[in-house]
Amino acid sequence: PFTIYVEINPTSGGHPGVIGWASQGDNFISLRLWPGRGNRGGLHLYWKANGQFAELAVQADGVINSGWKSVAASWDKSTIRLYMNGKLLGTKSYSGAFNAVDKSSFCACVGEPGRTHEAFKGNMRNVQVMNKALSDSAVQSLPMAHASSGVKKAGLTPPLVFSHLSKFTCNKCMENAAGAKADLPTTGAFTIYAELNPSSGGHPGVIGWGSQGDNFVSLRLIPWRGNGGLHLYWKANGQFVELAVQADGVISSGWKSVAASWDKSTIKLYMNGKLLGSKAYSGSFNAVDKSGFCACVGEPGRTHEAFNGEMRNVQVMNKALSDAEVKGLPLESGGGGSALQAPLVLKHTDAFTCNKCTLASEGSSAALPTTGPFTMYVEINPTSGGHPGVIGWGSQGDNFISLRLWPGRGNRGGLHLYWKANGQFAELAVQADGVINSGWKSVAASWDKSTIRLYMNGKLLGTKSYSGAFNAVDKSGFCACVGEPGRTHEAFQGQMRQLQIMNKALSDSEVKNLPM
């Protein structure tokens, strides 16, 4: 069985293919658009297996028009299904043959293999192929599932309606365009969450949207409330409601999280996952004008009260999370970095170039595993050799940990994890064919306090029993692209991405399921 899912933005017609693979003429599968189906297009899934032809064609109004939409197709070995924007458009019973063994001809933007003259024209994103037929509800929950105001921004899953993970500097209205396009909660329940690092006071707004003067919502800091406070308020059809609480330290420099929610009966305010106060309210809420959305500004129009400092991981949800759910959001208890869920203690997703110690400040401020256990994971694309370090932290000479590549191990390289703790040395070195060659691959290392393990591309390459000491307390020595602290002359040359450190030794199957 299978599910095919993709988000598309067409620019022209033809019989544009979406996704297909296998052999030309027979034993293939093809998903394509059908401009001539109805007034505004259709979807056509078909395949040929051992000479047997199967197909389902449905009308999908607007599928060929410009603008982002999602299309999906599935087969559970008994029923073929086609969807647009999460809505089931048609089904057909079929329990016959399916044969698409030749993966070498896979194409996105082309359906039936060989029909490149019918290539899709436009943009695609979020292409997914699964070896299972998803249920209707599971397809509806995929990133661009249909919402009342159209399709949601790619990458969001309910109850998220707006998300901006990356750090940005505030001193004016930010993220206006993205917020204005989001399916913001304009009349109902909500949760607002953001991580912030203030640099100065004033009446700094955090997040707000709606119209100026009436029918808006605003979350802001209150510098004069004790040592600082939080203030959530809104006005709906002339009715004013608010909750203000003391939040010691919220206006001080340093990262912390703030959150606000309303479930249509109770307003709540939080800092670092802790509930600070609540207030019963079951009246009106009206913030329909999404064009007034601002991060860094609370009440629409009050740009002179913009927050000063940095923000990251801004999230708006169309549901009031429970206290436990708010506590489980990234910065629970005020520690860690952006978008972390246990057992993650450090995560850097974006690609970066290596030739020196990198991410030192992020690593030194993270809750690194200094006495064990741990898992380290990173995706690498090498450009040259040496004894390139991958990740390391601790002190120079003793009480450190280092993961590095080993060009001289076998014909095409190896992996070397080693540490020194209170003068005691431990290591595991394995052959990892191709690890030093150019091209993206993943490497991982773990220790569960009894066994050291090394992996490449999710495959376990070797293990070694060890239940001795581990001591890497000095986080200030953290480096990506360098292994053993101080050995910057052995810096990795190339690119890295998806760096993750966990305070748990993942199982083999968990490592296998990491990004790559």
Features:
single chain; flat; Jelly Rolls; ConA-like_dom_sf; mainly beta; 516 residues
How does this structure look, described?
With 516 residues, the protein is mainly β. Mean pLDDT is 87; it is low at 145-155 and 332-339. Strand 2 (17-22) and strand 3 form a beta hairpin. The strands form 7 sheets. Strands 13, 14, 15, 20, 21, 22 and 24 form a 7-stranded antiparallel β-sheet that branches. Strands 25, 26, 27, 32, 33, 34 and 36 form a 7-stranded antiparallel β-sheet that branches. A 5-stranded antiparallel β-sheet has the order 8-7-6-1-10. The chain has 3 domains: 2-151, Jelly Rolls, CATH 2.60.120.200; 160-334, Jelly Rolls, CATH 2.60.120; 344-512, Sandwich (Jelly Rolls). The longest helix has 6 residues, at 176-181. This is LamG-like jellyroll fold domain-containing protein. It comes from Symbiodinium pilosum.
Strand elements, count:
36
* Structural category: mainly beta
The number of helices is: 5
Shape: flat
Total individual domains: 3
> Would you give the CATH topology of the largest domain?
Jelly Rolls
Q: Main β-sheet, in a few words?
A: 7 strands, antiparallel
Indicate the percent of residues in helices. Answer: under 10%
Distance between the ends: 23 Å
CATH architecture of the largest domain: Sandwich
Protein name: LamG-like jellyroll fold domain-containing protein
Organism: Symbiodinium pilosum
InterPro entries: ConA-like_dom_sf
